[in-house]
């Protein structure tokens, strides 16, 4: 009986990941399967890379930028083949994402509420990082002045905004309810709603101040 119950819990968890990906797709948000924590063993990531630099928080394929899709049939097929996969959301298409340490994110939300500022969806990555979803800048002429992904840059070295990352074109984020390498789960603090995303520049100052 315990084994059956455990299997049911595992199936429910897998079904929940696929259902979440389909919900994002219904909103017009392209998705792609991501690596996940292994069920057992001494590794922190399901990929084959020894010493993975971003365990359970990266796409399963280098072709993610071209293959990410909001097509429900494709998403069903992906998650039927990889039912434990986390959910990767490409940025710079429908939205950009400000990625800040959790303490800075919580402080920013307090100020946003106090000053009645616009805010969109906000996700919590295991109490380590907060993700603020904003309207995308697309491909601006000054794009080289901004960092696009924590995998190939070190924004912590930027004195004005330590620890702050702006995910735009050619980057991505891990979406709820993905399981993190820490064993915690990504979760929505403010879930997506059917409303316009805020202007990133209106939130940039608040988030930068909170990171100081």
Describe the structure.
The chain is an alpha+beta fold and about 210 residues long. The protein is built from 5 helices and 8 strands; from the N terminus they run αβααββαβββββα. A 5-stranded antiparallel beta sheet has the order 6-3-5-4-8. The protein has a 3-stranded antiparallel beta sheet with strand order 1-2-7. Helix 4 packs across helix 5. The longest helix is centred in the first third of the chain and has 25 residues. The chain is globular, with a radius of gyration of 17 Å.
How would you briefly describe this protein structure?
The chain is 31% helix and 18% strand. The chain is of the alpha+beta class.
The whole-angstrom Rg is 17 Å
Mean pLDDT: 85
H/I helix tally: 5
Element-by-element helix/strand order: HEHHEEHEEEEEH
Helix proportion range:
25-40%
Q: Give me the count of strands.
A: 8
Q: DSSP strand (E) fraction?
A: 15-25%
Shape: globular
| Structural class label | alpha+beta
Protein name: Bifunctional DNA primase/polymerase
InterPro entries: DNA_primase/pol_bifunc_N
């Amino acid at each position: 009986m315990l084994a059956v119950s455990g299997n049911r819990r595992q199936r429910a968890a897998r079904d929940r990941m696929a259902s979440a990906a389909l919900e994002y797709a219904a909103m017009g948000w392209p998705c792609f399967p991501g690596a996940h924590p292994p069920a057992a063993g001494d590794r922190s990531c399901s990929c084959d890379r020894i010493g993975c630099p971003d365990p359970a928080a990266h796409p399963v394929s280098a072709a993610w930028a071209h293959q990410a899709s909001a097509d429900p049939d494709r998403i069903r097929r992906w998650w039927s083949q990889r039912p434990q996969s986390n959910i990767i959301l490409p940025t710079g298409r429908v939205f950009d994402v400000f990625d800040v340490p959790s303490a800075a994110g919580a402080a920013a939300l307090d100020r946003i509420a106090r000053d009645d500022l616009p805010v969109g969806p906000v996700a919590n990555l295991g109490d380590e990082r907060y993700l603020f979803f904003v309207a995308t800048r697309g491909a601006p002429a000054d794009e080289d002045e901004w960092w696009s992904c924590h995998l190939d840059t070190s924004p912590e070295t930027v004195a004005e905004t330590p620890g702050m990352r702006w995910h735009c074109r050619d980057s991505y984020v891990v979406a709820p309810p993905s399981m993190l390498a820490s064993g915690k789960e990504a979760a929505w603090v403010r879930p997506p709603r059917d409303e316009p995303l805020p202007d990133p520049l209106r939130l940039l100052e608040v988030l930068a101040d909170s990171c100081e």
